[in-house]
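To: structure desk
From: M.T.
Subject: fold request, one chain
Message: Could you run this one when you get a chance? Sequence is below, nothing fancy, just the single chain.
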Amino acid sequence: MESASDEIAVPKYGLKLKLNHEYPENRSQSYIPSLRTIWTLLPLIIRYIFFYLKCKLTGKSIIMDYFYPRRAERIYGVPIGGIGSGTIGRGFKGEFCRFQLKPGLYEWETVEANQFIVTIKDEHERTIFHSLLSTFPKKTLSAWESLIEGSKCKYTALYPRSWTEYDLSEYGIKLLCRQVSPIIPHNYKDSSLPCAVFEWNVQNTSDAKRIVTIAFTFKNGTGSKKEDKSSACHTKPFKVGIADGIILYHTICGMPSSYVLATEADSAHEISKCLFFDPNSSGSEPWYQLKNDGRFEKQSETNTRMIHGEMACGLAVKVTVKPTESELIKYNLVWDIPMINFPLRMKKYYKKYTDYFGREDAGLKISQYAFQNYGQWEKDIHLWQSTILNDANLPTWFKTALFNQLYYVSDGGSIWLTLEEEEKQKLPETDPRKEYGRFAYLEGHEYKMYNTYDVHFYASFALNMNWPHLQSIIQYDMKDMVFKEIPDRVTILFDGESVERKVANTIPHDVGDPGEEPFILPNSYNIHDVSDWKDLNSKFVLQVFRDAWLCQDGQINDVYLKDMYDACYTVTMNLLRFDTDKDGLIENDSKPDQTYDTWTMTGPSAYCGGLWLASLYAMAKIAERLDKQEDYKKFNSLLHKGMQSFEQKLWNGIYYNFDCSDDEKKSIMADQLCGHWYLRASGFNHEVFPKNNVESSLRTIYANNVQSFCNGNMGAVNGFIGGEEDRFTVQSLEVWPGVTYALASTMIFEGMVTEGFKTAEGMYNSMTDLFGLAFDYPEAIYAHKNYRSIGYMRPLSIWSMLLAYQKSQLKTASK
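Reply: Done. Structure tokens follow.
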């Protein structure tokens, strides 16, 4: 056997587990707040209960279910699929689990009929080993057995690929399965594809030939019994070009769908097909066909099978492997669901990949395309990752964390949609949506809101640095929504007030709920009146600023700035209404009016005030760049007035006070330099926040929120006061991984490279080694026993750490 090239070999880095691995600490979401916190939030809790019951009775979507939060199953590995076309979770023990094929909705199902199966025969064609290639416990298909010794098998996850090594040496065989999804920076066509390739390397380690079959089975639907049973299904064999396999037609959530199981045709391989078996039976018929003959029973290539209910099918490839040699068996899986709609059915959408492969039978075309191109995908992935993986100055844990965290771009409920021609014609030529369509992803697996903007502010670095056009089309959607008004009244759960759903001249909190009608009905979040939030408008301006100054070609994007300017100006002037004392600094309203939506801020605050000043600086620079001199003078004057107020009201000589209240102002907030972080990311230094203040604040945060919390092994607690975590509210005593990564990035920007990486390292190691949440990254963790909201957007901010590191390296090299 030839040694594997660097492009496909099992990498040195990645999440590495044995198939019998069990995580030592099983945390849950059953955190019970203090009685003081419950009392403070009691009116909200009561209103939520009534709202929840009303939703259940009327069938309305619940965007955040606090009664039945998910407990992480701690089984997940690298999910399969491209961006915006749905994903299927894979467990590190071989499961096909966590289906995210319905737009923005998750089904945490492990489908036991979805399997790889191995049959090994000796030189006399006697079966010496027959087993599932998974080790998770099974409830159905009683004839199917797993005889794999998990302790002898290894799993490596380095998104978007994974490697599973099966040591079957006692039977003369070693198997290596490499799973590849087309997640490729700056490649928008291939990254949109709903597919994955599984390449099996079958190595004969004995001195006699071996006859080996790898079979691949799959059933209709997503493991939702009620819906899968109501589906009209049929299978059809096909052979098109180099792809040979079965297509399984069915429906998912009423949407016409198909699964394509294919292998690459090879004259040296014997291919057999099973067009139907019952996934609720014992499974004995296909199982014993494979065990006895190493193939499925021969069927006519013109056969089709039709059924109303659940059905499964299978594909098997049989190879003869000479002593000490190896053979390759290639499979791919495609899920083609070209058209989607949302429950209100106000509009139908086609997925982005249909631009390239059409709206009819795209699955067959994608299957061939995947076989033809996955080698190039892997070269591109290797080239992208190797620069980082080979950097000896980067910590080992970070190399794994950086890429594996990117799973959320595809597995975060993302949808990537094409625009119809009439929609494109209405857009100016400079609008990237004409070419790249529309993109959205969820705040979290459990928090079902698309493009939650206060959180995307942190996560957007992953898009900006890898798929900048996706970041851009989100911004153009937000620009349009600034001027949108929806006068429909909604009741706010926090205070019971009735408010407009979307107020003009504001940035929305989100672009909608997948259980309603996204893009048309924004602001599905109804806990607070987001038109009064103090961070959303500033965050829009700062993202425009960063995206324009952080272009891939190094040139400031003036066209983009011109397109965005009116929206930026409008939201900035709208936010100015919160400067009630005319000192150049906006004030918070003694309620949770920003992303920390249980943490009350009173008067000027470090968080919102810092974002405001950073956005004023951005507006002054943008106005100057576009030669809008009057606007430049206005924003520059306002900035300097606000800077003086910020220093006088919030700087205590060591760090910035949390706010101007009596009880909470001394809290050390981990995120107090959020505005400064964005200016640094945009290429600026200490034009707004003095260098000495920044360094002193960071060292104070590092000593208290990081090192004095859980021995520095859990990241940065949001608030720290009086020598312990701040217990003012639930969120003040939480660690937000996304904020910890942002803080670590800020430290690296300021030359605190060691401290920056140490800040995030302890948290990452706990999350992956102890809690088993590497592909279930939550919004928040606590010092003990609990986490909140699994599968969350904000931790994508880890990519800002790479940006800070790269800029620090350039600075060092230029000296």
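Reply (cont.): The longest strand covers residues 326-336. Let me know if you need anything else for the meeting.
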